[in-house]
């Protein structure tokens, strides 16, 4: 599997599936969630109403509607509460479950945002190693994972994490 980090907007990614950092309602929000709903169009919200929400650490699949990506995988990251409340395990579960949904859809290329490191307050320096490591060790048919980072700090953190992993 190839794993890479780029700086950009996930809504324009030409991959089989993009991952959304959603909340448990799956009915939209701010951040990347708001951007994905805006770009995918109102049919996405209608579809999500039928899904009955999503637990923290789990993931659900929808069509991509107006996005270039064929699928959207909606996952709910943990809110940062200081790190002693299972946040790393829940974050790892988001990446694992998202890859499981990708496999079920037959998606071979998947773009992830930096789950939980925006509104949910997870420090990116601690989230990036969990994200990269989990993707590396998960058994999946996905051939390309791209971390799409919205700002320079996030991009630099993922890029350095990938570099240091390649050296070990
Ligand atoms: N493309 C890629 N990354 C983006 C984009 C974009 N278009 N927009 C923002 N990001 P956040 P969370 C980055 O807050 O922390 C929502 O209201 C952003 O800069 O989107 O998991 C949901 O409904 C940051 O690096 O997600 C939930 O209530 C990363 O995506 C809550 O926010 C994640 O930031 C989820 O919070």
Describe the structure.
A six-stranded mixed beta sheet has the order 1-6-5-2-4-3, with helices on both faces. The two termini are 16 Å apart. Helix 3 (87-105) packs across helix 4. It has helices at 31-40, 42-49, 87-105, 124-137, 152-167, and strands at residues 2-7, 17-22, 59-63, 71-76, 109-112, 144-149. The model has no long low-confidence stretch (mean pLDDT 97). It has 168 residues and is an alpha/beta fold. It has five helices and six strands, in the order ββααββαβαβα.
Throw out a few tags for this protein.
single chain, 168 residues, alpha/beta, six-stranded mixed sheet, 6 strands, 20% strand, binds ligand AR6
Outline the secondary-structure elements.
Layout: E1 2-7, E2 17-22, H1 31-40, H2 42-49, E3 59-63, E4 71-76, H3 87-105, E5 109-112, H4 124-137, E6 144-149, H5 152-167
Parallel strand pairs: 1-6, 2-4, 2-5, 5-6
Antiparallel strand pairs: 3-4
Structural class by helix and strand composition? alpha/beta
Question: End-to-end distance, in Å?
Answer: 16 Å
Helix run count: 5
Q: What is the helix fraction of residues, given as a range?
A: 25-40%
Order of helices and strands: EEHHEEHEHEH
Let me know the largest β-sheet. 6 strands, mixed
Question: What is the residue-mean pLDDT, rounded to a whole number?
Answer: 97
Strand order across the biggest sheet? 1-6-5-2-4-3
Query: What would you call the shape?
Result: globular
The counted number of beta strands is: 6
Return residue spans where pLDDT drops below 50 for at least 5 consecutive residues: none
- Strand proportion, as a percent range, falls in 15-25%
Whole-angstrom Rg: 14 Å
**Bound molecule kinds, no repeats:** ligand AR6
């Amino acid at each position: 599997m190839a794993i890479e980090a780029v700086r950009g907007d996930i809504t324009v990614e030409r991959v089989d599936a993009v991952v959304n950092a959603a909340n448990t309602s799956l009915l939209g929000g701010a951040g990347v969630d708001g951007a994905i709903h805006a770009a995918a169009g109102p049919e996405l919200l209608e579809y999500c109403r039928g899904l009955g929400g999503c637990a923290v650490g789990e993931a659900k699949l929808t069509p991509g509607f107006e996005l270039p990506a064929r699928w959207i995988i909606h996952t709910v990251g943990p809110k940062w509460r200081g790190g002693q409340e299972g946040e790393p395990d829940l974050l790892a579960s988001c990446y694992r479950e998202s890859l499981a949904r990708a496999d079920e859809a037959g998606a071979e290329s998947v773009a992830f945002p930096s789950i939980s490191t925006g509104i949910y307050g997870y420090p990116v320096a601690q989230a990036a190693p969990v994200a990269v490591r989990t993707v590396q060790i998960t058994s999946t048919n996905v051939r390309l994972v791209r971390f799409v980072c919205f700002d320079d700090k996030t991009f630099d953190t993922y890029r350095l994490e990938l570099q240091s992993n390649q050296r070990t």
